[in-house]
Amino acid sequence: MKNRNTIQRALVLEAVNALRSHATADEVYEAIVKAPPPVSKATVYRNLNLLSEMGEIRKMEIPGGADRFDHRCHDHCHVRCEQCGRVFDVDMDYVTGLEKGIRDTHGFAFTGYDILFRGICPECRKGE
Hints:
alpha+beta, Arc Repressor Mutant, subunit A, Dna Ligase, domain 1, three-stranded antiparallel β-sheet, three-stranded mixed β-sheet, 4 helices, 34% helix, globular
């Protein structure tokens, strides 16, 4: 029998995979809270971060916005709508080696990077 933490973690992972929308922690919580067993918001946040650390999902830190959680863990690019704030995958080859062009590393040992484009999504463009 799975312990409660494992069951809750599985529910969180299942929600991220089902949403497939670069969901925020609040969106994941709203998807889970509708069905038993009860799960607190703190448990959802804790498990999202744990699943991210485990490599099961990918945490995306969005400047000026809530962190988002992606079911796709491989390196890929995203675009954020400047009007509604939703995040989408960008269909392009991932650019590798950008860190090699950095002239002053300020002592950093770079471990990776995320590319986030900005734009206006088709739904928001319809409303213009």
